[in-house]
Amino acid sequence: MSTFTNPSTSGKNGTTNRTMNGTLNGTRSRPRHGTGNATATEATRRPHLSGMTWLVWRQHRAAFWTMIAATVLGVAWMIYQRARMMDFLDAYGFPAKSLDDVERQFDPYIGAFNTVTTGLTAIPVMLGVLLGAPLLAGDLENGTAKLIAAQSVSRNRWLATKLAMTGLAVTVATVTLSAVFAWWWNPIKLPYVDIDWTTREFFNTTGPAPVALSLLSVFGGVLIGVILRRTLAAMVVTLGFAVALQALWGYFKLSLGDIVTATSKPVSPGTLITFPPVPRTAHVLDVSYVSGSGKHFDLTTCTATLSEEATGQCMKKADIVGASIDYLPIAQMSSMQWLGASILLALTAGIVVFLFVWGRKRLV
């Protein structure tokens, strides 16, 4: 008895097996419908940042985006306020009409200056506390620094990327705000004498001064964070550091200028003294009487006398022949800012070098 084998069955099975295997293998090897397009789209949507740069941006993107948004809003507000001010000045007849007679009509525009300058002067402090202090202290506190140190990236590269990106963001933001504020103030900088250019609201918010103050506050906060290794403690100490920096800067900034002395023409002792003229926008440092021998007397000299005749006799006895005024002209504002900024930037560079020489050893 012979066994019957149906060749068509074997062929069918073979065909079936070959078809299924081929179909499955082909399905596995080929991308599914639309997958190729999705891959290409994903590739085009990849961020331009990569490596350590992308990591640093990812870690601190909230702070960076907040800084960008605040800068854009601040610039937009200052542009709007300048447009309002220029409309008023055009309607008032400036510059043909002097701003000395503008009286209270100009108060709302000066109020806008005061509001903005309050925020601008606080920028170095806020950046130091909210950006500088947590920059490395957060990584040291939560252990991210150890994780990164275990990778192939060196600590020097990690530290350099963090400091470079932060410094660039701070510089761009402060330069932009400083330039726009100076553009807003410039039309009335010389004609309007009720604004003292040496105050922190104007001296610290234009030119290179805000950039240098912000960078020193931020990198000082970074160093404090590396030392303390605790975010909250570093933020508190950085707040004190930034406030102290502002106070010291305010105390020493006037010494950055070259004092100009104006002296009146000598008169006979006991004669009425006429004070010498100084520029309208000058910041007066001292006013005094001058004797024939060149000695300076305070303006309270001879004020205790009860009559004009007695005052004349007193001044004649003191040999007072003129008056002297020490002042800083507004023309020195830019040179004073650059000199001060160079000192602050040198201190900032010293902190950065110290972070690389000593601080990188603590980044684990």
Tell me the series of helices and strands, N- to C-terminal: HHHHHHHHHEEEHEH
In helices, the fraction of residues equals 55-70%
The portion of residues forming beta strands comes to 5-15%
| DSSP, total strands | 4
Give a quick account of the main beta sheet: strands, pairing sense, barrel closure: 4 strands, antiparallel
Unreliable spans are 1-44
* Overall form: elongated
Mean pLDDT: 84
How many helical stretches?
11
| Global structural class | alpha+beta
Strand arrangement within the widest β-sheet reads 1-4-2-3
Walk me through the structure:
The chain is of the alpha+beta class and 364 residues long. It has eleven helices and four strands. The chain has helices spanning 7-29, 35-44, 51-92, 107-142, 144-149, 155-185, 200-203, 209-228, 231-252, 308-317, 333-357, and strands spanning 260-263, 283-291, 296-297, 320-328. Strands 1-4-2-3 form a four-stranded antiparallel beta sheet. Strand 2 (283-291) and strand 3 (296-297) form a beta hairpin. Helix 3 (51-92) runs antiparallel to helix 4. It starts with 6 loop residues before the first helix and ends in a 7-residue tail after the last helix. 26% of the residues are buried. Mean pLDDT is 84; it is low at 1-44.
